[in-house]
Amino acid sequence: xxxxxxxxxxxxxxxxxxxxxxxxxxxxxxxxxxxxxxxxxxxxxxxxxxxxxxxxxxxxxxxxxxxxxxxxxxxxxxxxxxxxxxxxxxxxxxxxxxxxxxxxxxxxxxxxxxxxxxxxxxxxxxxxxxxxxxxxxxxxxxxxxxxxxxxxxxxxxxxxxxxxxxxxxxxxxxxxxxxxxxxxxxxxxxxxxxxxxxxxxxxxxxxxxxxxxxxxxxxxxxxxxxxxxxxxxxxxxxxxxxxxxxxxxxxxxxxxxxxxxxxxxxxxxxxxxxxxxxxxxxxxxxxxxxxxxxxxxxxxxxxxxxxxxxxxxxxxxxxxxxxxxxxxxxxxxxxxxxxxxxxxxxxxxxxxxxxxxxxxxxxxxxxxxxxxxxxxxx
Length: 378
Hints:
The protein is mostly beta strands. It has no helices and 28 strands. It has a single domain, classed as YVTN repeat-like/Quinoprotein amine dehydrogenase (Methylamine Dehydrogenase, Chain H, 7 Propeller). It is globular, with a radius of gyration of 19 Å. The termini are far apart.
């Protein structure tokens, strides 16, 4: 079965959302690409990677439980595209390793011991798209899922994950998994004191430790995964985190706002933390009743650019939103991507004086996802 087609060059317009301020000096996107195929819904927020040659590599679930990977140049021309794995239901993240190969953290079904068994799969492929190795990890739980991956100083990899002790019934705890350069497991750490959490993103800190964020939590560990500090964040889900030059942290996501369950809404949120995890400030951004956070990157002027998804109740459409803020989180620019009906942001980077947005969209309700890449300036 062919799970993906050749590149489709289609027009994608950036248009104003209700309540958005559009800067008249902002340029429209200079190139836009949709990739058509049998792509599936994905939960990973780190599936776009800028590569050392100036291009990009992307990953997405495709077809009958496989992972699609494509290498693109700066103009989004496809250099190669391939599919890997088996029984895959999700991809958490993809990175370029120091040897110019690519490593993906995925998640696969294994129902041999339990009907809902799901576990972590780590796949390494060469710079030309050939499979180098495929390692699967099963620990002591019935449900384990990897969300993001980074390369460590020793050329190994750190993965942030979640596990469930109660047969995938939704009581999750953050887990960190450290592997060597060959994908062999070195250690895993879990943090049951942070209940009902997933680790959506992880970064290497200046002391070679790790900072991870997720549902209701930010957590800092040393290089061995031993907790140094952590903070519970009620009603707040953080999806991406970045380390700032002064050792502080900036994270994006969304937060439940409201006094009762009937009045609750979700707003986008940016939070800044000092090096010890103390909140320096948090800013909320309200577009519609339900705004879900996505990806974050640092702007060259010291500000921040982040993406998310907003829901239009009148049409039940979910559309991407992109914000530009200054260093203090004050909105400078805000626009929506007016394409498709159900959209999900999966990556955002700054490259060659442009921002690259990566996500997925359905053009018509009920139809399959397209992968969407957008090159724009602010």
